[in-house]
């Protein structure tokens, strides 16, 4: 039933009128609800009054009561929604240089990775702790001790351990939060230059921000002005989208043409920007200048934007802030940090629920054996409290302290220097991983391209023969030599090879979008012309800018062999020869690289000769049908690809003046067409792309991170499936997958065709289903279509692949893939990356690892673990992951055993003494048992290891056993339950059989045997002894022996010094432990675990 709120101007009459139609249909149910006789309006009745009662009036009054209640509830809902509501994202008008004109308040420009604030810390941590059954249970038990009839022992025996647990947890969380706060403060305290007349210390909308080369952009801005003469600049976006290509950005024409920088404050202009959204590849807006006559309107697109977390790669830029803080594209694509809970914690939580069920059943049995006499319900609760040690509160303390110890060991490991544990609650997750999702750029690769191979068809040049190419280039541009007597035909062959090398190198030096930059020009010397700047051409500070690192690698290589790109603008470029001569070429047309065409071209005119040449380079699949027939291109491309090289085919075509004029006319006409402009332009360009002369094939290598190949092989052998998620192009991603051996040489690769609708996705999935044992390569767009229509089928097929490569992935898509794997496979996932675009993926995974490298610290700050090199992940998982999981599993089960054994003794004691709900051990004995007497030896299990680190790295197959969760399961738990019942029964019955006249002797014999049994059981479970373990054993034993002198309240000091006491304790202890030692020996002999076989 829907009742409108009073704040929406609804009256009582309106509400009742809306409810009136319900009377006939629902009155029967309403009457039953109010426990009234059936209303007369119901079809089963015939009159309106019965026994003098007007039921319709009662119904009307009841409906009015409902109305009043609904009004109150709905008003409360409105108030709650007002408190909870998130601010709606809106489009905005940003006045240049006038933040006071902004009508609304916008978020501060700050990074926040904290989970809590000052007010939510305590309630947040308490909620995270008490949502676990274990802690909630002990809170209830501790509170029950305030009730006199339920009180079993001293209050401190229940509240002290619980308070200690909460204190340890809060201190650990507080330390983590303070570290996050300090890291955020460091990032938010970075200083930037700002043009303003106002005294604001922070960046707000409308502020002008001045950014220098290599400076990170702090907020989303519109690009207004640059120091570059061309009115454009390059930015690096690797932190945002993972692409290493430099993006060309164009300043707003109106502001770029202003005579002076100060004129930005004298104009009356504003930017209209669309509301903030996730898409980092699109933007719609307008720039308007109102003080002009007429007004100036300029359309704004993605080319005019400078998104936060990108880096200025060239010149000095000035922008106006349009989005700040959580409204920036980078933050919108980043998920908020969540509290991660390890799988081992969830498993232990389930086991504690099973123990609680056993505890309740045991208590009911005790009360039933009493015959449910007297206040049996109170006795039931007393038994529950009495057996509460079945679920030991020290379990959480020991596990949390163990996690801190594992984190300390990881950070102190000299083999993985610089590793930081930022989330100390999930180190065991490192030992349970099945899926590893990795970024490409900066994670697997160094993002450094090196030219490796030049192939001319008949001859190939590698890194060791580049000096020959340099010699040929030098000869080609040398001054004419005096004529010499002709010799054999060999010089003619050499001249032919020399000519081909010259043409190939020249084509590579001309066909690109690279721009040289000189540091000396960045300091104000931008007005110098190319002719005046000849001395700058030899400047050691020359750097190259380009939209692709491949382009830069090629141009650097031509520089190394003698042909140097020294200057470029929108209309021309200049090359310097080995002899120092500067050659000028005019750029007539340029056709940029696109994912669809897979090639780029340029038409240039040489200044000295006037010759027009069309150069083109691209992927072999695109160029094979364009170049003239040859018999070597396909084979050599395959050879280079197998070496992990990225190949480009270079070709040329000479054009006459008439041919070019005809082309230019058709090209310009196609660009002016309104309908199908892209198709017409493409058709005109393709008319030139016929029978081109094949010049050469180039091979460039993207340098992999150190030891990436052996690390990936190690992870594969460990049974971990690796998915590479990258924002880069499909070809680049495939090439890196091959070169890094993510995809082995024997495996086929299935490239998922681009699909745009349900039918295409269905056909392509069927084609993929027929493939077996092949790696999958899929683009982000196709992935989105598949997940929209065939999510379950796609994930099922992809999970069967040995490796998956997802290219052109947005940050949100990366996180979506992680969620899909967690949802459909129920396996543990790990995400590793180094850029801001990887943060969502890292935070979504069960275990997030950030690499601190060239691309900044954003990923490492948001990650659970931070490493400095990809190769460190091998040791992190194989050694520390294994040890953390194995140790926590042993520690958790042993602590539960420690509680179950004393609860078994209590049950035996109560059953013998007429099922009385009286504690066997009281006061300090119970506190000492779980702390000073047994804590140190039990906690020393965090130093145990079943396999040496070298062995774990040598045999990564051992890791597969960990993912099956056999170290902590219901099977192992039941084994420990049986051990506890056996030992508890032996200890209690033995003490009862052997004790003499006084009951206090039972306590002394059973408690001493219990302590010795626990110490011996710790020794039984240790696989590799550490000197601290030995110290813990003897220290605890010494503490117990020393404390006997002060325990006269519980023990008969005269009895415990007699030989009778010693032999009785010894016999009981031997009977409780010896069978277990024998069973362990037989098991190791006849059914040893896999790690023990390797150790032997």
TrEMBL record:
Keywords from the UniProt entry: ATP-binding, Golgi apparatus, Lipid transport, Magnesium, Membrane, Metal-binding, Nucleotide-binding, Translocase, Transmembrane, Transmembrane helix, Transport
Intracellular or extracellular location(s): Golgi apparatus, trans-Golgi network membrane; Membrane
Organism: Oncorhynchus kisutch (Coho salmon)
Region of interest called Disordered, as start-end residue ranges on this chain: 522-544
PROSITE patterns per record: ATPASE_E1_E2
Binding, Mg(2+): 439, 441, 834, 838
P-type ATPase N-terminal domain location: 100-159
Pfam hit, one: PhoLip_ATPase_N
Domain P-type ATPase C-terminal: 861-1088
One of the record's GO molecular function terms: ATP binding
BP term (GO), one: phospholipid translocation
Swiss-Prot/TrEMBL cofactor(s): Mg(2+)
EC number of this enzyme: 7.6.2.1
Membrane-spanning segments: 156-175, 354-374, 380-399, 895-915, 921-943, 973-993, 999-1020, 1027-1048, 1060-1079
Gene behind the chain: ATP9B
UniProt family annotation: Belongs to the cation transport ATPase (P-type) (TC 3.A.3) family. Type IV subfamily.
Membrane topology summary: Multi-pass membrane protein
Chain positions recorded as ATP binding sites: 439-441, 551, 593, 617, 646, 726-728, 808, 814, 837-838
Active site: 439 (4-aspartylphosphate intermediate)
Name of the protein described by the UniProt record: Phospholipid-transporting ATPase
Catalytic reactions of this protein: ATP + H2O + phospholipidSide 1 = ADP + phosphate + phospholipidSide 2
